[in-house]
Amino acid sequence: MVDHPASAPPDLIRPVVLPRNPYMRTALPSPSAAAPAAPAPESAARTARSRIAAGRAPARPTTAAAFHSTSAVTAVLLGLVGIGALLHEPVLIPPLAASAALVHSAPTLPLAQPRSVVLGHLLASAVGYGALAAAGSSAWVAAVAAGVTLSLLMAARTPHSPACATSVVIVLQSPAPARFVPLLFGATVLLVLTGYAASRIRRGAPRYPAYWW
Q: Which helix or strand (DSSP H or E) is residue 75 part of?
């Protein structure tokens, strides 16, 4: 006969508990955790077209800001025309119109600060009269004078692109320096003072100048 082993006492029988595998997921993800649906092709194309059309240009100014800048520029240019009519001298020249636009439309840029406006035009006049005396009046000389003016403005830390046109005007028109230079200096000072006053009339307008020198 085969002897069967005696059964183990009931208190020694323990259930076998398997360890839980942390890498196994037992619950299905909820529907809210699903990835968002991709936008429709038509909507994506429309968004891309509007972004390309808008470009990276600055935002359009408000109507009040645009009217304020436009009226200030027009007023100061009319003032230069009036001064020129009284003195029988062409005080309003194209470079000054460009300077006025910078002062009143971009008052925080370095190109619009008083140092750049006043000193830039004076340096340009020195280059223009120097080129006129050295090589005479011609379009070739005017082009070289504009380039020399730009390099001098950058070296002097007075960036002001309209001043390059001042040297061109001097070379091509040969105005008398004894009258042209004082009028040019007075006109640039008037532009700066007008910008200073206009920036304090409208509430919320950027303060001009950002620096004087």
A: helix 63-87
